Every structure is written in structure tokens, then in C-alpha cells.
Amino acid sequence: DVPLNYSGFQMPRTGDAYCGFWAKAFKPSNHYFEYLEAPLTTTLEAGKAYKVQFYVSLPGKFCAVSHLGAYFSVGALTVPGWETLPFTPQVESNTGFLSDTVNWMLIKGCFIAAGGESHIVIGNFRTFDDTPLDPFCSAPIDTQSYYFIEDVSVVPVQPTGFSFDLGGPVTECYQYTIAPGLSGVNYYWENGSTDSTLTVTTSGVYSLTVYDGCLGGVDSVEVNITNKPAIEFNPNSYSICEGSSLIVSLDPDEGTYLWQDGSASTYYIISTSGTYSVTLNDGCDLTFDTIGITVVEPPVPFSLGNDTILCTGTEIEFIFDPSLGAFMWQDSNTSPAVIITQGGLYALTISNVCGEVSDQVQVIELAIPVVSLGPPSDVLCNGDFIDISLDPDLGTYQWQDGSTALNYQINTTGMYSVTLTNTCGQANDSLEIITLAAPDFDLGDSLDACPGDTIILNANFAMSQYAWQDGSVNDSLMVTSSGMYALTVENVCGSHSDSVAIMYVQALSQPDLGPDVNLCPGEKVVFHTDAPGAEFLWNDLSTADSLVAIMAGIYFVHVTNYCSTYADTVVVTTTSAPPNLNLPADFALCQGQIVMLNSNVTGVNYLWSDGSSDAQLAVASPGMYACTISNACGVDVDSVLISDGGSAPTVSLGMDTSICEGTTLTLVPGSSGAAAWLWQDGSVDSVYQVSLAGEYHVECANNCGVAYDTMMISVLPAIPDLSFGPDTAICPNTFILLSINIPNVNIQWSDGSSDSIFVISDGGIVFASISNSCGMSADSLMISMLPAIPVLDLGEDQKICQGEMVTIDPNIPNVNYTWQDGSSDSQLLVTQGELVVLTIDNACGISTD
User: How far is 58 from 139, CA to CA, in rounded Å?
Assistant: First the structure.
């Protein structure tokens, strides 16, 4: 509110409002600073001066500080926390403690913008420890500082009121440094530099703006830079023809010149080869350059020679000295060396800047001789011949036998060759003649072979084609099975065919006379083996395919054919005793078990009481079981009685469980068929007493087996006491939280809810209980409602006469009083005109008037 508000009383400097901020204050366990921030209407320009001013006023209930400032930022600031902003303000007060509580105090200053600043931030930029309060302050709140702020302005400063002189105009070689020699001022050159000097390398007028606080001035200086280019010949080498001259003309306005021969002319004539140099003095520097002159003679005449003949496949090479000049052949080739590989007219021109010479040559191409007798080889059948005719226009011929005939006849095997000769050389060719007979062969007579044998059939005839009965065309055939095999051989001189039959003998297998045999008196046994096409030989030298045995002995047979021989042996014994059977004694069988009954007799036939005929019988239930064994010599019978042995035991202790602390649990195992007990501690009782946490197990046994079970016992803690502490009170529109942080319990509040947290916003009694299987605990809490802080009204402003006393008595119970003079009585005695301010507070709030 204006003019009276929480911080104090002050009228606006202009208008009807103002702002305020904490310059130094406290929050719980923290320092506390406030800042005012606002966007500028225009972004600040680099190098430009701006005047900043604002007014502050100290409320009477707080103490003064000595430094308040304004900081200009690029973009809005976002800095977390309550501490001092870590920035240095461009403008800051320096007039001591700002302690005026009646008038508005002006803070002002000028600064040069860096460019781009868009926001202003106003406050105390000194740290908490670097912000002392006015030691003479006697305000009610003497540990904190607060200020009202009014009429903030930021305006550009025109550079006036400050004068200086840069001098000029100035002429210098290469560069010049402008040094105003001013101290304690801010510089801003026209190129944006803020240095105290400016070095320039080009001619021009240079401007400087200087600021001294809020004063400024502008001046400029004209600078003329003398920086003529160095003397340079371009090109730095030059050729002139013999008898001519080069004239070098130099600019006399550039300076003075000195040639290598001591002359100083700007007009120089060169007519001989050599290196010429000149030095230029332009007033700032000496520069030097040279030029090389070469006197060139016209090209020397040359010759490509007389017209000539070129044999095909050969070449003619012309090579000239590259220094003779530039080369140009008839095909635009510019190389000083050319290789000619075909006929034609060839011309060359050699030139330089001073003239040219030319010559040409005609080259006639002649082919190298070629002779051909046809393919390199040929076949001649017995009685045939070959005629060869040669072209007489190609040159002269000579055969391998020295003859020079153009028609030549061949009728015998041999190597024949001929050589052709003309102007470009010789050519030769040769022909190999092979005489060949018609094929004639014999694959031989029919034959037998054993399994696994491989027979190779072949007929070796050169330069012939082969066709076997299976379509193959090789000169040989691999045979591994019976059949008729045929071959046809053909060449340019004829063909022939033949065939042969091949039979593979059937493979023998190992004979098997069977296992050894036992004969009863009067019995016989017949041994037989089957091998078609084989011969047999028994131990009695008989050769039939079978043998009858009626007495004990060793019997064998040999089986033989064209490819192999095999043998087998069998032993025959005789006996006169019948078989004897003894089954086990009668016994009991546990339920679920299986036992094997075994006769323990071999070489007999078996017949059990269930009709099976194996040597063993699997028994899974009680009963009478019998077995009959027999062979050719007799029969024997035996039986066994198997009774019911009962079932294996079972045991169960039940599910894992918990017991309360201080109680005992009796474990009674459920079981069937148990005959004996054994607990984990070695005890053998049928029940077990448990009072501690742990793992417990029991075994039970009978004649048919052992059973086992385990149980885990845990001990629950006793229910803890529930306590909410003493009764309490709350303010209107506030709440408190009750929390129960006890694990593994059931929670029940007075409203029926079961959450661990209960929210209270009204007065009354709150009740809660906790429980588990071991007990219950409960507590209650009385909640009282505190009165809200009343609205404070001291009434209308009053007038007091001199010598009069006025007593101000708000008459509000159960609150704390704080008057503007720091007193805390419930009444205030006023004897003079003043601003009376009262603040009342209780646990629920603060009210001021």
C-alpha cells in the first residue's frame, strides 16, 4: 500500500506507486537478498555511454547499507538460491550509508555499454559479510535492510562537455599510431576498439569518442600513409632477336633509380644478353629487382633425309636437339623426337621468336613376306599323298631338302618346311606329316572274376576315337561287375569293333552250424549249410551239404569256391540227468515294489504259472507263483508263496508357520505305516515341542522304507506400544500428519482407514490401533483449534493537542504486541504527533495497522 505498508511509511516521489526490495535479510538458516529486474525498451549499443539514475528511501523500521547498484545483462538472469548475485554492477552508490527515511536519495552514474545489454537488475551486489549495516541505526529491526525504489531511468549520453585535440593532418610511411595521451577516460574508436591508442596502415580520417564519467567529446585526425609498391620487372626474363633492342621505361614520379652500371636514367636500352638490375628509392624504402635478357638467333636449317622404304613392322626414328626451337610436325605433334611405323609424307617445321625452317620426307611401306603350309600337322593314311602349290609372286622359295619347286608332293611321314625370301626379309613355315593305319584289336576270351576284383579293358590306337557299350569314350574301361563289354575304335583311316563276356563268381558267406548241442540218450542232430556252387568237406571227409550227429564229438565243415574258403565248428555232448529247479523260499512283498524270480537253470524250456516262457518272471503283487522247466531228458516243477508286506511309510508336518514370542507349538506329524520316529535332535517321540525359530524335521520308518519332512518356524515379535505423544493444537486452514511406521502390523484409524499416514485438519479426538497375530496396541490424540489472528484496526488517524496524552488500546487477548518503538505492552501512551504502527502475532499469523 502507498503511502503506508508493511515495510513503513513513504509518499511516492512521482506518480502514485513505488517498489521495494530486501538489501540484506534472513531466512531460516540462509542469507536472503532481493533484486528488481526489468527489460530495457532498447538494447544498448557497444561503445555508447549511458546515464543511469534511480531514487531510494529507507523505511524507518530497518537499517541502512552503503552500496546499492544497477547491473546490465545480456538477456534475463535466472539464478537459483537466495544469496547475492555474483555480478559486478556498472553503476553503484559510493556516498556512504543510505540512511534517509524521509526523503528520496538519488543514485546515479554513467557507463560505456559493451553491446547487447537488454535488462537492468537493481539491488545489493555485495556479499552478506561485505554488507555492514549502519552502526548508528536504532530501528526496531536493526539486523536487516529494506529499501523503497522510485523513478529508474537509463538514457544515452551525448559526447559533450569534454574537449581534446588529435592534431593532424599526418603523413607517415607504412603505419601511424594515434595516441591522444588522455588518462582516466573511456575510449571508443570508430572501428569499435576501446584501446587508448589506434595504429593505422591505410590513409583516411579516423574518429575517436572519449567519455569521462557522464561527460564526452569527439575529435578526428587525417592520416596519409605513404606505402608505394616495390619496383618489379614483369616478366623477370625476356628474349630479343639478334639485331633488335629492349627499351625499359620507369615512372619518374615513384622516386629515384640506380642501374647496375651506375646510371640513374628512367629510360634504359638493352641489346645484348645479360642480367640487368635497378634500385628504387621511394622516400620510405629501397627496393631492388633484376631482369634477364637473352639474345635469340633464328633456327638453323636441317634435313629429314631422302625418301625411303619402310618394311611393315619396322620403324624410323627422328631425334632433334630440343634447344633448336619449337617443333611442329604435319600431324601437329610438337615433340623433338618422332618414331615412324607406317608409310606417308612426313614434314617438320622448327621455329623460334626470330624465324622458322622446314623439311619433308616420303616414306613408302613394304610388307614383310608371309608363307603358310596350312595347319602345323596332318595325317596321311597308308598309300595316300598330299600336293602343295606356292605363289611365285611372293618371292623365291627353298624346301628343307634344298629344292626350289613351286609344286611339292608328300607321301611319307616326316617334318617338311619351306622358306620365302623378298626385299623386307624372309618367312618360313613347317608341316609335320604322320602316317596312320586303320585300327585292329582283340579284347580277348571270356573270363571269370571274384567279387571286389577290377579288370581293365583297353585298346591303344593313336589319333582314334573310342566308343564302349556304356557310351564312354576313354581308351580304357574299368570292369567291376558281370556282363558283356564291347568297344568300337575309329580314326580317319577306318574302324574296328570287338566284345568280351566277364562273369563274377558269387561271394561265399561264413557257414553257421549253430550253438553247441547236448543230446539225450537216443537223440540225433542234423547240421546243414547252404552255398550254391560251392564244394563241402566235413570232419568225416564227406562232401554233402549236411551231416547227421548221434554221439558226442567235435564237428566241422569247410566250404570252398573259385574265390575263397570258409569253415565252422560245433561241439556235441550227451547227458542222461533231467533238469532240477529250486525257486526262493516264501517271502513278503512291500506294496509298490517289484521282484524278479529266476530259475537259475540254462539249456531248458520255461513255463511259469502266468503262461510266460522267459527265464525270469517280474512279480509286483502277492500270490502263489510256479515254474516248470523241461528238456529232452526230463521235467521239474517248483513254486513260491509271496505275501503282502504292507506299504512304505508317509509323514507330513504341514506348512511352514510362525509363533508368537514366549509361546510353544506342539508338532504332531501326520503319517501312515510309521513304525519308528527320529527328530533332528535325536529324540524318538511321536510329538515335538517348539518354542524357538528354526528348521525342524522328522523321519519315520518301517520294513518297507523311510519317509522325511521339514518345517520352518519363525517367531513373531511382540506388538509394540503405539504412542502419538501429547495432545496438540492447530491453526485454522492448516493440517498435521500422523504417521505409523511399524512394519508387519494391521492399522485401524478412528475413521476406519488403514493407511500408514493420517491427515488432521479439524479439532477432535483421533484414535488408532495396530495389531498382528500376537496382540494389539492403541493410542489417541486430542486436537484443539487455535484462534486465527484477528484483523487489527487502530481506527482513524487522530490529532493531539500539545500537552495532551492519548492511550491506544486494541484490547485483543492471547496475542503478542510489537509497537513501532519496539515496546510490547498491550497499550501505547502517545504524547506527540507521530506514526503509530502496531503488529500483533500468535502461532497462527501476523496482523499490522
Answer: 11
What SS3 class is residue 392?
Answer: helix
CA distance 317 to 336: 11
The pLDDT of 506-516, averaged and rounded, is: 82
In order of 516, 607, 772, the CA distances from 579 in angstroms are 18, 14, 80
DSSP 116-184: ---EEEEE--S-STT-PPPTT---SSTT-EEEEEEEEEEEEPPS-B--------EEEES-EEE-----S
**Do residues 674 and 705 lie in contact, with contact meaning Cβ atoms separated by under 8 Å?**
no
Strands 274-281 and 286-296 come out as: antiparallel
49, 91 in Cβ contact below 8 A?
no
Could you tell me if 649 and 675 are in contact, meaning their C-beta atoms sit under 8 angstroms apart? yes
Cell 536493526 belongs to 142
For residue 576, what pLDDT is reported? 60
**Cα-Cα-Cα-Cα dihedral sign, residues 372, 377, 378, 383:** positive
Give the Cα separation of 66 and 107 in Å (integer): 11
Tell me how far apart the alpha carbons of residues 359 and 320 are, in angstroms, rounded to a whole number: 13
What DSSP character marks residue 95?
Answer: S
Of 38, 246, 25, nearest to 145 (Cα)? 25
Rg of the chain, C-alpha, whole Å: 68
Section 211-221 average pLDDT = 86
pLDDT, residue 59, reads: 94
Give how far Cα 283 sits from Cα of 42, 255, 340, 521, Å. 52, 7, 64, 156
Residue located via cell numbers 501326520: 670
- Backbone φ and ψ for 369, nearest 5 degrees, come out as -65, 145
167-172 CB contacts, 8 Å cutoff, 24+ apart: 167/221, 168/221, 168/222, 168/223, 169/221, 169/222, 169/223, 169/224, 170/221, 170/222, 170/223, 170/224, 171/223, 171/224, 171/225, 171/226, 172/223, 172/224, 172/225, 172/226
Residues of the chain with pLDDT > 70, as a percent, come to 99
**Is 90 exceeded by the pLDDT of residue 226?**
no
Can you tell me the mean pLDDT for 744-751? 86
| Cross-strand partners of 397 | 420
**3-class DSSP string for 528-594:** ECCCCCCEEEECCCCCCCEEEECCCEEEEEEEECCCCEEEEEEEEEECCCCCCCCCCCCEEECCCCC
Angle at 550 between CA 544 and CA 556, to 5 degrees: 45
This prediction's pTM: 0.34
* 361 close to 306: Cβ distance less than 8 angstroms: yes
Q: How crowded is the C-beta side of 576, counted as CA atoms within 13 Å?
A: 2
C-alpha cell at position 59: 523505511
φ/ψ (deg, to 5) at 406 = -85, -20
Q: CA angle, corner 672, sides to 669 and 678, nearest 5?
A: 50
Which grid coordinates are listed for 118? Answer: 537488454
Which residues share a beta bridge with 502?
447, 483
Write out the three cell numbers for 123.
539491488
Half-sphere exposure of 435 (CA within 13 A, CB side): 9
List, in order, residues 6 or more apart from 794 with CB less than 8 Å away: 808, 810, 836, 838, 849
The answer to whether 572 and 544 are in contact (CB under 8 A) is: no
Whether the CB-CB separation of 438 and 491 falls below 8 Å is answered with yes
pLDDT at 592 over 80: no
Are 119 and 75 a contacting pair, CB within 8 Å?
Answer: yes
| pLDDT over threshold 90, residue 693 | no
Cell readout for 165 is: 585535440
| 658 CB-contact burial (10 Å; exposed 0-12 / middle 13-18 / buried 19+) | middle
- DSSP annotation of 9 reads B
Amino acid at position 726, single letter: P
Provide the residue type at 200 as one letter.
V
Question: Who's near 814: CB < 8 A, 6+ residues apart?
Answer: 787, 842
